[in-house]
Amino acid sequence: MKKLLLAALVCASPSAYADVPFAVDVDRPFPEYTWLTAHNAFVNSPGLFPNQTLAIRRQLQSGVRGLMLDLHESAGRVRLCHGTCLGVEPTFADVLNGEILPYVRNVSHTVVTLHLEDPVSREALAAELAHAPDAVSLTFNPASWETATWPTVRQMADAGQRLVILSQHYRNAGAIETTAGPAHILFDRDYTSENDWRLGTSIAEHDTSCRSRWEGQSLGASITSGDQAWPRLFVMNHFHGVPLGDHSWLDNRYDNLRARIDDACVPAAGRKPNYVAVDFVEAGQVGSVVAALNLGTIEFFDGEDGTGERLCAVAAGARRTVDLDENDLDRCPPRRVRSAAIRDVPAGTRITLSDGISRRAPRMTVDVRHDLAGERALVARFDTPQADDHVMAEIRDGGPSRGITHVAFEPPPR
After folding, report:
1. Which of 174, 183, 278, 354 has a CA 20 to 30 Å removed from the CA of 253?
2. Which residues of 162-197 are buried (b: 16+ CB within 10 A; e: fewer)?
């Protein structure tokens, strides 16, 4: 089933997971989601120091919904380049028209955020956007919403406002008049909080603290500036100064990334991240982290009683069965797991852990007894029944004592 999920994302087939990556609905206000975000999304292999392996369209197909892009004026156009521009790099309009818009048009209720590092003139940006008139018409305009909070993803998509564009430069914010009409761009410091991007300049450093990127603005600032008093979006950066694909597998491991979120960034910001920005989005288990933040999860450990290494996690939310495979999407080694923790799932959820797919396979059925929002319920071992305030766990045929090969979720009845 997990392979089918990955195929759904890659092929953009009409499933809940294709509409909103790692979520099962489109009816929550926008800040209630966490979005997988590609740092320097345009700096792809081949190259001396690529930040990503996948091209932008493939990133979107793989579940990315935030793209960090550097814009510079070169050879009479606004181009995507990192450092020195040669005047032959793709223009911003080329990327919008050829990579982003085709995906947005083909997958219903998709909302994509562009995080622009854009030291360009307002006039040059307006001229460039005129080459992408369809993108201009899709920009999100907060002033058009008379709502107490951000609209839902469904409302934004249905209103045709499916591109949220954030600029690092105040001069480029607001309604930019183009020959294709006004393009609406938000000043990021008015609408977001953002942590300092440096895990370390080199991979020898690992600064996992979480402090504001911007002097004079607390990471805990919670309300947007401007006409709307909406929740401020939290951008969590998680990457090194020098990108190395092999090391990103370590940075992006579930345990490393989730520990930084839980222990440093959520306490500092007072809320979960809305964007998790990484190098090499396919490395490690970033998708599992984002899914867990959106849907709740079951995390697996290689020791009993939640001890040892936190190996991986599988998101809850939808009725589905997941095959554990250390080489697949969640990268869970089925024979190593010995205990689990259930987090952020509602009462009435049933999780079945089995060693095999047949009805006769040894299994444990775990019923969640009360809402675990912000809480963690431990399943101490898989071969022993358990009953406490959080869960009721029953076993059959001795329970899956050799490990877990399949996880089945049944959401609460509606």
Report:
1. 354
2. bbbbbbbbeebbbebebebebbbbbbbbebbbbbeb
